[in-house]
């Protein structure tokens, strides 16, 4: 809550000085909180030069802003506000919706995702329904079966633990007694090479939990690839112990990687540490990956999210 005296002092500042003050704040606070304080603050947050400054060093051009609805502010939201991960909660895609997706052309700054047959088990199967689709593929060789093994099971709601606080009414994936994993390829063909070749920082996050009475482990990898699908950089969470019946979020900033980013692969896996059958392994959902401007890196580093480490939130 901004005090009246502070607001009046800010109102007395020249516009250029006030804009420099706003640049000291996280972009999300500028767009949300600051715009609600008063008319002057709202007008300042709409200033194109402010959002241009926030994009400094990104490779984004004036022409990109002119082509985007909302100018520099709209471009900022399009590039940095988008979750690059499709189906972050592993939802099934109905065949009719899938056919519509296949006919849609990608827009500028829109990631490309593979649309594949859904091979993830569901608690209730109906084999009379047409096949559904998904953006997540099984890691090579995974067997999907009710007995478990290295398969994964879609649960809605989750079994043996409460719903994820970040996705109360969304599905989760449960794993079994062997490493069961899924992966997603994210193509960045519609992103300008000039932007990608600045090696823009990324923020990755995911929620995970264990089932009651079943110790389990969880692991996630983010692979950055060049034009030829060679891995130029990778981030690995390592084996994280999943807390029984309690959801946690793992979050990390990925930056300082080599030039040449053209696609990203996200891999997520888990397993039970004691059970030899059934889906008693780690659960996960709510996957998010998005670019952030260089000007915002300092705010994430202040939380301790270094390039080779992650922060686990309880």
TrEMBL record:
Coiled coil: none annotated. It holds the Pfam family F-box-like. Residues 113-293 form the FBA domain. It comes from the Eukaryota. Residues 7-54 form the F-box domain. InterPro entries: F-box-assoc_dom, F-box-like_dom_sf, F-box_dom, F-box_only, Galactose-bd-like_sf. PANTHER family: F-BOX DOMAIN-CONTAINING PROTEIN, F-BOX ONLY PROTEIN 6-LIKE PROTEIN. This is F-box domain-containing protein. It comes from Sphagnum troendelagicum.
